[in-house]
Amino acid sequence: MSVRCQVTGRKPGYGNQVSHSNKRTRRRWLPNVQRRRYWLPSEGRYVRLRVSTKGMKTIERRGVEAVVAELRARGERV
């Protein structure tokens, strides 16, 4: 499964790790993605989402109902 936030769409960032001797090797920065369960009162059930910590803040601010409705409009399986 890919390391991608369902709410914000954050993906790994790519770049170089630069050592003290200026030697460069490829590396990637992974987003802090967690698997969380949210209660949907309108449906009377839980939904599982893979969200980053920024996505969790978005859900707290806008509400889980609005976020799930937007995900379904985009065609994501929730």
TrEMBL record:
InterPro entries: Ribosomal_bL28 (IPR026569), Ribosomal_bL28/bL31-like_sf (IPR034704), Ribosomal_bL28_bact-type (IPR001383), Ribosomal_bL28_sf (IPR037147). One of its GO terms (cellular component) is ribosome. Residues 1-25 are annotated as: Disordered. Keywords: Ribonucleoprotein, Ribosomal protein. The keyword Ribosomal protein applies. The keyword Ribosomal protein applies. Belongs to the bacterial ribosomal protein bL28 family. HAMAP family: Ribosomal_bL28. This is Large ribosomal subunit protein bL28. It comes from Saccharopolyspora rosea.
